[in-house]
């Protein structure tokens, strides 16, 4: 957590200054309480009312600083949470395709929702409460020094004992927090899976089955959270006992000093109030520190994402297409492609065919740089693909997989994805993908909302939309993995014809259904067995 706090050091310095103002107001109020009590004992009513007025002013200042502090903490806390989410997603985008797929999407979603929320609740909030308490305690100790040195000595001895308590619970807190994080990840992943399967559940009427699954997952998460609460309760009780003992001992010592006439009777009020602030803070310090330390595994998980640096190969020139020599690739030591030789020349058109499981899509994943654990030689433009950054590769290559994603938004937003294109370019892409007439017939046209993962349009239209999104980019090489599989024969044929008839375009398509009209226009066919 130190890293994120340092990043926002200016904002946190402002919070510290507000806490100091709050603490000064509270300390002055405590000292004035003693003065007011002494005034009453001495029947000095003029001084009494003067001190009451000063007390009111002190409390107004205290409340004003408290109000500003609360608002500022909320703002900075949200900024830090946003920074954590931003950096985590950025790291995920910068890691390798293989590393990203080591976890489910639900797991990553849990990191930037449940884990960040837990960091806010168990990390940031206790940190600010502890910081505020320490500032008030420091001011209280300075004020106590004005009464008698023995009070400070006794308090320091008791505080030394109190601050040792968190060490007894650190290991347990880290363990239970890690377990809660894992259960949160599993729960969110399952909920995402179940809700995404709504159509299937609806058709098979398996609501009771899913409800039982949800209940079981929720119970498992509840058990982990209850265990965390059990450990936290132990931390709270231990700190509370130390708190009570500390306050009672200060009250007793002040009373004894008053009997010896070392301090005034009114001092009992002030020292009790000041000691309360100190021991409330340090009595809860074990709870604060255990809670803060429990978030460390969550930070480590986010910070340990391996970022793959983008190294630009300055010698790369797209002078030749893909060349495969002795290319071998397999899953879990089981060969899928073995000693494959083939050349995909620039501006030519190719199809990759074969039975299911023969490695057709795997070849496109290798050509698109998603998979790198191959042996043999794979080059593009006389440069080994492994020596090219993905940024360089995707400047020239467009990969459209068989399950392209449609974002929850408008047709325009799905096409542009943050880029800017002219109206003519957008409509040309829709026309080439066979979607122009469909969009024109919509009441909102290109501004129509497609819904979550395109649920407001048909499967065929989703595929057309993602194809138009790809064609809009005008890449030199298109890798098409069953890109027209969900379209009717006429539309699929027209799109494939459009692609293979573009002279400057290199097309490499995987298909289960190679139409004769397309086959005769191809420059080569790679058949896998």
From TrEMBL:
GO cellular component terms, A-Z: plasma membrane
Keyword Lyase: no
CDD domains: ABC_6TM_exporters, ABCC_MRP_Like
Location of this chain's protein in the cell: Cell membrane
Domain ABC transmembrane type-1: from-to ranges: 13-294
GO-annotated molecular function: ABC-type transporter activity; ATP binding; ATP hydrolysis activity; ATPase-coupled lipid transmembrane transporter activity
UniProt cross-references to InterPro entries, sorted A to Z: AAA+_ATPase, ABC1_TM_dom, ABC1_TM_sf, ABC_transporter-like_ATP-bd, ABC_transporter-like_CS, P-loop_NTPase, Type_1_exporter
One Pfam family cited in the UniProt record for this chain: ABC_membrane
PROSITE patterns: ABC_TM1F, ABC_TRANSPORTER_1, ABC_TRANSPORTER_2
Chain ranges passing through the membrane: 12-36, 48-68, 139-163
Membrane topology category: Multi-pass membrane protein
Zinc as UniProt keyword: no
UniProt keyword annotations, A-Z: ATP-binding, Membrane, Nucleotide-binding, Transmembrane, Transmembrane helix
Stretches assigned to the ABC transporter domain: 322-528
PANTHER family assigned to the protein according to its UniProt record, in alphabetical order: ATP-BINDING CASSETTE SUB-FAMILY B (PTHR24221), ATP-BINDING CASSETTE SUB-FAMILY B MEMBER 6 (PTHR24221:SF654)
Protein name (record): ABC transporter transmembrane region
Organism field: Isobaculum melis
